[in-house]
Amino acid sequence: MSATHDHTPAHSHDHGHDHGSGGHGxxxxxxNFNQAFAIGIALNIIFVVIEAFYGWRINSLAxxxxxxxxxxxxxxxxxxxxxxxxxxxxxxxxxxxxxxxxTILAAFANALLLLLAMGGxxxxxxxxxxxxxxxxxxxxxxxxVVAGIGIVINTATALLFMRGGDxxxxxxxxxxxxxxxxxxxxxxxxxxxxxxxxxxxxxPVVSLLIAAVILWGTWSLFKQSLHLLFDGVPDSVxxxxxxxxxxxxxxxxxxxxxxxxxxxxxxxxxxxHLVTDATDSGALLHEAEEELHEHFEIGHVTLxxxxxxxxxxxxxxxxxxxxxx
Length: 325
Hints:
The protein is an alpha+beta fold. 61% of the residues lie in helices and 12% in strands. It has a five-stranded mixed β-sheet with strand order 1-2-5-4-3. The longest helix has 30 residues. The N terminus is likely disordered.
């Protein structure tokens, strides 16, 4: 996957492992989560039906509201699954990188959905705290049993995605389900103490504490996904360290136009111009690719080699796209 541009003294080499070129392609997360998504969505749809039924049967606004909230879990899992599937679409003439960025969009949407859901939970908890709602006392056992089912289903679903924590999109799905397991656990604990001690205020207070914890964790996912959407450098990569690594390669005299960005939530790309007087460009390119992958897990590398003379001329052409930084 290399090409020489004869119209300039530059040599361009594109080493895209993600295109199936062999070698040391890298992916943080296991390749296939289809079964995990299918099971998670099915389990959560079943739970929404159970929760809505019992909420209707005992006329519990709390259960009905939580059933609506759990529908957002299904939506979050569908979003994450759609992103993962879209990322596997092969590149073509119109989308030369494929649809890998869909995983970043899905992670961002999942974080936004979870922030909105926790905002709604906070609003409801404040309303119940101010109104002194005693519905938990009246229907406590039923609510605790349904919430207990929620703990099992949400924990089981979260565990399906635990092994993909390095992928931001999969981590978003995991966080969404783990958050709801925590909410359900809070309902059970608060419900038990309320039935035992008569502390009506405990349930909304626990809800507020849980919402605060989840918001704290989700904010990081939201910031990271938004950062990557705008071609920010992934947190795992230190651009100064990358520059020093490239400068330390044999015959490399200067590095400019260095760019690092995320193609998806588990794939990193890099482009750079190397000023060099190397006689064996193939060996230099191979070493650069190996070092970048080993130290920074960058799998899609494009390097342009320039002679010192060309680099000097290039730097004198403002707006040419190759001026030095």
